[in-house]
Amino acid sequence: MMSGGEASRTGAREVAAGTAAAGTPVAVLLTCAMAFSMMQLFLVGALGPRLVGELGVSRTELGLTTTAGFGVAALLSPVAGRLVDRVGPRRCVVALLSLAAGSLALIGAAPGAAGLLGAVALGGLPQALANPATNKVILAAFPAERRGAVTGWKQSGVQFGAFVAGVPLSLLAAAVGWRGAVWAAAGAAAAAAVWAARALPADGTSAARGGSAGAAASGAVGRLAVFSFLLGCGVASVNTYLALFGTQRLGLSATVAAVPVAVLGLAGIAGRVGWSRAANGDGRAEALPSLLALGAVGAALLLAAAALLHPLVWPAAVAVGVFAVSANAVSMVLVMRRSAPGRAGQDSALVSAGFFAGFAVGPPLFGLAVSAAGYGPGWLLVACEFAGAAAVTASSAVRRARPVTA
């Protein structure tokens, strides 16, 4: 027979195991929700050469499609954050997946650049809902010690979407046309919306709690928003133009040029999971954003060098995923640790708004730089954006690490 203490410990382990097993489908669903919330970005990037050829979209117009979607996402993110806090994350996850399905269907039906812009703009709505809604689900459904790992997997869904756009959907586009590939993605998003409606717990059944009330300093969240803006400028430029860089500067075919986008996505999955786990430990998270941004500077410099030494595009794509893309997941871990109860949606939305604003601004600036001076200076512009992000968070980490003297 077991003693009372042994029975108690065994019971606790059984409860923990049951909670982990029950939480796995939710974690997978949140990963899918993040993938579909930004699928349009990666499809426009991976299918860019086909869109330029068939629809007559210029490089600048290709950048403007990203601006349309993420401009809407940046403007609506504050409203989306308050909405999530008010009506609950389950309804919002179902809504974002449904809107993503509609946006993708319209992209597949777009007759030209104007229709493409409108469809991508609609895709800004699920993007605005994505981080606030999924972060609130994590706070409600998972204990504090699991949130870093689950956040990493959840945020890696964005990069899983990049991989799907770069390989399976690109291959499908080669077989049935790019419109058929986009419509297939729309159907999958609609199926995920049905899954979310059935799998997620009803809103309001549990209290979602963040960190202590004093942890959510508005200044810290504001600095993360600025960091995310600069980071978003660079990441969006790489996502939107990497495949086009491969065809126009490196001499790759349209199908092969989409592979670096997939490589970036796979590296981003590993980076987001690994760095988010590290950020969940005490004392580690504060220094990580600036360190990752510095690594992203090196990745952008590798892309600039790839214009002269073409094989460098492959390690550059890996480095962008491991450093630049992963930094956003660490930001989400920090937001959830600092948010006061009831404000996780609004704080997540503020940081997301900065990231989306960067996605809206970065690609058009990059397109103008490339048109004026070539891809090399364009990648140097991206390196400067990442360096600025590192400076913002480095100053914040120094202030928090400085001892208080009497």
TrEMBL record:
An example of a GO molecular function for this protein is: transmembrane transporter activity
Keywords (alphabetical) are: Cell membrane, Membrane, Transmembrane, Transmembrane helix
Bilayer topology: Multi-pass membrane protein
Known Pfam families for this protein? MFS_1
Q: Does the keyword Cell membrane apply?
A: yes
Cellular localisation: Cell membrane
Q: Which residues cross the membrane?
A: 20-42, 62-81, 93-122, 221-244, 250-275, 287-308, 314-336, 348-373, 379-398
Domain Major facilitator superfamily (MFS) profile, chain residue ranges per copy: 26-402
Q: What is its main location?
A: membrane
Among SUPFAM superfamilies, the record links this protein to: MFS general substrate transporter (SSF103473)
Naming one, the record's GO cellular component terms include: plasma membrane
Instruction: Tell me the PROSITE patterns matching this sequence.
Output: MFS (PS50850)
Instruction: Identify the domain of life.
Output: Bacteria
**PANTHER family in UniProt:** CHLORAMPHENICOL EFFLUX PUMP RV0191, PURINE EFFLUX PUMP PBUE
Which protein, by its recorded name, is this?
Putative MFS family arabinose efflux permease
Q: Which organism is it from?
A: Kitasatospora atroaurantiaca
Q: What is the lineage of its organism?
A: Bacteria, Bacillati, Actinomycetota, Actinomycetes, Kitasatosporales
